[in-house]
Design brief:
Largest sheet: 14 strands, antiparallel
Radius of gyration: 31 Å
Number of strands: 14
Shape: elongated
Structural class: alpha+beta
Distance between the termini: 43 Å
Strand content: 35-45%
């Protein structure tokens, strides 16, 4: 009976020991993915900020607040269409960055379509990959880091410049009780396209381009990233935009600040993001740490128990626990 129980325990030990690496290296890469229908919204603010008022004689003003609303909406129909050709799980995000002044009026509005692999977050190049209506070919990540983010630099796509450059790992920090990786990217002064949708009625980017006036931009981008899910739990930018050769438009200065400010996530969105990421990271840890190590430990324990039962089953019936045979009974007196 003990030998039969030992064989059963041995079979379970082999099963759980084999499941440990399978969960980590086979199941996790296939099960962990971004859902195609995901929707999220983020509100950032620059308080105070410098802003060009297009409707008041193109004057540069100090304003109490500039608000940036970023939305990411999963396009399931487009995801399914691209998946048929790509042969892998694809996510399509229709993103919008909407900037408003203190009066609530639109300053700029830039749409994007971001197409990427649902598991690795690597870009997938397909028709429709655009920024503000212009076709682009992304290299590297945008918006989100891969699952199990590493302590290294990544290529990060800048939507304003339409190019990618390194975003540097700057160390491990604690943010709101969560261990995170801190990343920084500085985009030097770069000439960038005019937004397709201008805040001045009846004025198009083509008309401005004919005057010779150009738009330039620089930013220092900062992210605090949860290394398990790859989701940023906080983000900031020290952002500045200028119009150069502005005298061509009749302005007294040749260089005019369009927008300048330290952009930060609004507090309520930081709190909700931290709560959301904290709940999601448990699912990733189950597949990468808790279950694999738990199964491995259980397999070792079952294997040890099976060996112990096998050893007990091999003892002679008359053997004592110490291993010496039981003494012979004394002969009866004659």
């Amino acid at each position: 009976m003990r030998r039969r129980a030992g064989l059963v325990l041995l079979a379970f030990a082999v099963f759980f020991t084999a499941m440990a690496p399978l969960l980590r290296w086979y199941a996790f890469p296939r099960l962990a993915k971004i859902p195609p229908s995901q929707y999220q919204e983020m509100v950032l603010e620059a308080k105070p900020a410098t802003l060009l008022d297009y409707n008041d004689g193109m004057k540069v003003k100090q304003v109490p607040r500039v608000t940036i609303v970023q939305t990411l909406k999963g396009n399931v129909e487009e995801s399914e269409r691209i998946e048929r050709d790509a042969g892998r799980d694809v996510v399509v995000w229709d993103a919008l960055s909407y900037v408003a002044g203190s009066d609530g009026k639109m300053v700029s509005e830039i749409p994007e379509r971001y197409i990427f692999d649902a598991h690795s977050q690597e870009p997938v190049h397909a028709t429709g990959e655009t920024v503000d209506g212009d076709p682009v070919r992304r290299e590297g990540i945008e918006f989100k880091w891969p699952f199990l983010t590493e302590k290294r630099d990544y290529q990060y796509f800048d939507a304003q410049a339409r190019t990618s450059s390194p975003i540097h790992y700057r160390g491990t920090r604690v943010f709101r009780g969560m261990t995170v990786y801190y990343f920084e990217q500085t985009v030097p002064w770069t000439k960038v396209p005019m937004p397709k949708k201008m805040p001045i009625q009846g004025v198009s980017p083509e008309q401005i381009a004919k005057t010779g006036m150009t738009r330039w931009y620089t930013t220092k981008r900062m992210f605090w990233v949860d290394p398990v899910t790859g989701a940023p739990v906080n983000g900031e930018e020290i952002h500045k935009e200028e119009l150069r050769n502005a005298k061509a438009m009749g302005l007294p200065q040749d260089t005019v600040t369009v927008f300048a400010g330290h952009v930060k996530m609004r507090e309520d969105y930081i709190e909700s993001t931290v709560d959301l990421v904290s709940s999601q990271r448990l699912l990733i840890l189950l597949l990468t740490s808790y279950l694999p190590w738990g199964f491995l430990g259980l397999g070792v324990a079952l294997f040890a128990l099976a060996l112990w039962l096998e050893a007990r089953s091999r003892r002679p019936d008359g053997a004592r626990p110490g291993g010496s045979p039981a003494p012979e009974p004394a002969p009866a007196p004659a």
